[in-house]
Amino acid sequence: MQQNIGGQNVLKTFSLGGIHPAENKRSADRPVEILPAPPVVTIPIAQHIGAPASPIVKKGDEVKVGQIIAQSSGFVSANIHSPVSGKVDKVDNVIDASGYRRTAIIIKTEGDEWEEGIDRSPDIKKEISATAQEILQRIGAAGIVGLGGATFPAHVKLSPPPGKTCDILIINGVECEPYLTSDHRLMLEKGEEMLIGVQLLMRALKVDKAIIGIENNKPDAIKHLSQLCEATPGISVQPLKVQYPQGGEKQLIDACIGRQIPSGKLPIEVGAVVQNVGTAYAVYEAVQKNKPLIERIVTVTGLSVKKPGNYLARIGTPVADLIEAAGGLPEDTGKIIGGGPMMGKALTSTDIPITKGSSGILIMPQEIAGRKPVENCIRCSKCVSVCPMGLSPYLLMTLAEKAIWDRAEEEKIMDCIECGSCSFTCPSSRPLLDYIRLGKGKVGQIMRSRIK
Amino acid sequence: MSVVLITIVTLAGLGAIAAVILYLASKKFQVFEDPRIDQVEEALPATNCGGCGFPGCRAFAEALVKADDISSMNCPVGGADTMSDVAAILGKEAGSAKPQVAVLRCNGSCEHRPKLTDYQGATSCAVAAALYGGETGCSYGCYGCGDCVQSCQFDAMYMDEATGLPVIIEDSCVACGACVEACPKDIIELRNKGPKSRRIFVSCVNHDKGAVAKKACAVACIGCSKCQKVCPYDAITMDNNLAYIDYEKCKLCRKCVEVCPTNSIHELNFPPRKPKVEKETPEQAPAE
């Protein structure tokens, strides 16, 4: 698994750029704690990429745990299920992680009554009886989305477009974001179930080979899963050098199997599909246990947090509850981030609920939370050398600032994966990604209008 | 001597041949351009602001010459004077577009709309809008980064440090619409300047429910529709918790301003109100 170059063991990684921020995985040795269902849950109907789900419950309706409350409203969309039992309080606009007021279903918890047919026993169900079609159908029905944070509906990714074939499944256990440990704990604690999930995904994709990519800062997870993999033919573990953003699909495929995806294309172009370890576990629960996606593991961490940890929380739990579980909000808090420090987004309130894509809640102390004053570009080209997509961030920023959209498109602004390595590395603290993101929005709009 | 002579004859001959070729080429490849385009362009203000909807004054001049009917075309900078000049050159009928001006439909100053978060990203409203709903509880209002001020080429806007909102200098504004384009929240609107520059408009674009809007901003439109009920001219429409005054229908009676419980309806350039006991003077009677 390791290449021997010049007498040194060199671990595999992706070929272009990348950075290595301080890891700060403070909660790596904290076992997952189960958080009780909160008294009120807020379920946004737009928790995934694609069309928001359409609510099928109204004020006053009684719901059970696992009951569908919002239906997928298109091919790229996902069902949403009630994470608690109780009464629908209202369907209203509330501020969610996007920073805008959007439609959400608010449910008052009463008791803990589950929908029939959901297997809540702790036994591991190993034998796989479902066919590929049934697995896909179950994944779609259970509302499973990519749990790494991108929240792309899983059943869409598992249905390659006509003419494209998939020959390998890559499981993302990289967790390259600093601070976050939810995937790490999942691999350690639910490794066996997750591997059954991987087998289900392999059957759904009709492939006989799967690679689990794990960064070398999680030796216990690599060891644990390697042992488990001995019993499962076709699945292997690939240790990887610690390098951000290795968890990006394109970077992970490059790192694991050395295939490069052409500009503007999807991983299926090179015959690969990537799914997160959390997604694999959710697939296991959906297919083997008939349990829809109603909870997830969330890391609550930060340098000043008293009790950093990993919590299994119901979707819709307010961030405040999780922070409370981790020892309360530290006094010197300057920023609360939903997700990791690199790609996460600052939250505007602690009432914001966690959603399917919430991998972590990061609390930044005031002294390191703020941005440094912006200075002039000194042409050091550090941003160019760290860009994992081989772009020129300094140029893209200028083009977006000056609204030169045609040139920005030529310079492949749409290839940007928004990993933030450029902004992280810039010695002049220039808001590179801020403007590139703006440019991506505009150029994407122009490109879509051209198709019509 | 002969050397000098040969040189002169050769050069003169070359010159003559070149002249003949150029003459023939200019006849053969001549592109006819209506001389009126130049005349019209001369009459236009040469600001190249794009307010007419064409890329620059030259393109507008070409379009004016080409069009059969120019009544719907208007140069917002030059206004009626310029358009009647153009119409005179072309012998066509000029339209009767009323002069317009940009108005800011947000009054969420620091005092009225308390800050809840602190934005440290790039100083650009477009960047901030792509990120979140802004520093206050109102996700419809002004971000205060000044994209509109940047876009104005007529120095008709500046940021007011005290309120955190842009200010439109009415006399400099030519209603080119650059700020309307630049604002990611569609707060700025071009409205008829009105007689004696008097205007009434709802200075809010918040579509949230009344309680939510009011909590975020003291001067938000709460969608109570009192103004709609009191308006004698059906000029006010309610759309999703927000009132809008149609400037074509509004007769500037100011009844809506009086009933608005949050003072979100603004009147501009009106003389100070007389105490209610007195009768309205003819000057204050509905104009138009």
Automatic annotation (TrEMBL), chain A:
Binding site for [4Fe-4S] cluster 1: C377, C380, C383, C426
Topology of the protein relative to the lipid bilayer: Peripheral membrane protein
Cofactor binding remark: Binds 2 [4Fe-4S] clusters per subunit.
GO molecular function terms attached to this record: 4 iron, 4 sulfur cluster binding; electron transfer activity; metal ion binding
Matches recorded under Gene3D superfamilies: 3.10.20.600, 3.30.70.20, NADH-ubiquinone oxidoreductase 51kDa subunit (3.40.50.11540)
GO CC terms of this entry: plasma membrane
Translocase is among the record's keywords: yes
Domain of life: Bacteria
Annotated GO biological process: electron transport chain
Subunit and partners: The complex is composed of six subunits: RnfA, RnfB, RnfC, RnfD, RnfE and RnfG.
Full protein name: Ion-translocating oxidoreductase complex subunit C
Species of provenance: Geofilum rubicundum JCM 15548
Protein encoded by which gene: rnfC
UniProtKB/TrEMBL annotation, chain B:
Binding site for [4Fe-4S] cluster 3: C152, C173, C176, C179
GO biological process entries: electron transport chain
Location(s) in or outside the cell: Cell membrane
UniProt keyword tRNA-binding present: no
Region of interest (Hydrophobic), residue spans: 1-26
GO molecular function, one term: metal ion binding
Cofactor note: Binds 3 [4Fe-4S] clusters.
UniProt: [4Fe-4S] cluster 1 binding residues: C49, C52, C57, C75
Predominant cellular place of this UniProt entry's protein: membrane
Domain 4Fe-4S: 32-92
Subunit record text: The complex is composed of six subunits: RnfA, RnfB, RnfC, RnfD, RnfE and RnfG.
Protein name, UniProt field: Ion-translocating oxidoreductase complex subunit B
Source organism: Geofilum rubicundum JCM 15548
Gene name of the record: rnfB
